[in-house]
Amino acid sequence: MLRESIADGSVDLVYLDPPFNSNASYNVLFRGPSGNESAAQIEAFDDTWHWTDAAEEAFGEVLRSGNGAAAEMLRAMRSFLGENDMMAYLTMMAVRLLELHRVLKPTGSLYLHCDPTASHYLKILLDAIFGAKHKISS
């Protein structure tokens, strides 16, 4: 578990390049021995999110996190968005952002590379988790 291996407030810099909620599957394509394209491929990553039991469990984890602002914001987002793919993505991100908040020093920096279709929601989550007083630049 990450919590056991990284001390609270010990990280100076985080660059987060999470899945982009692209609703696509990405494959690794192989080439033949002569360098020509091959039909062989394997799924490398599935960037689709759905409201499932796992999303519900992650939502509960945020509510139990002790960060009241994050819990309240995620509840409001769920009330507004419903239990859909975007909400599943935001819930997955909220769990990770809470953990990053735990390990980041008060003077540390977080760089988040995110999907423009979710960036506005993520900005609100960041404000709830880290506090709206922190400088956010695009």
Quick take:
This protein is α+β, with helices and mostly antiparallel strands and 138 residues long. The protein has five helices and four strands. The strands form two sheets. A two-stranded parallel sheet has the order 1-4. Strands 2-3 form a two-stranded antiparallel ribbon.
Describe the model:
The two termini are 32 Å apart. 20% of the residues are buried. The chain contains five helices and four strands, in the order H-E-E-E-H-H-H-E-H. The radius of gyration is 18 Å and the shape is globular. The chain is of the alpha+beta class. Helix 3 (68-81) packs antiparallel against helix 4 (85-103) and helix 3 (68-81) runs antiparallel to helix 5 (119-130). The strands form two sheets. Strands 1-4 form a two-stranded parallel ribbon. A hairpin with a 5-residue loop joins strand 2 (24-31) and strand 3. It is 43% helix and 25% strand. It has one domain.
Q: Approximately how much beta-strand content do the residues carry?
A: 15-25%
Q: How is the quaternary structure best described?
A: single chain
**Domain tally:** 1
The biggest beta sheet reads: 2 strands, parallel
Q: Quick one: overall form? A: globular
Q: Whole-Å distance between the termini?
A: 32 Å
Q: Rg from C-alpha positions?
A: 18 Å
What is the overall number of helices? 5
- Structural class by SSE content: alpha+beta
Order of helices and strands: HEEEHHHEH
Strand arrangement within the widest β-sheet reads 1-4
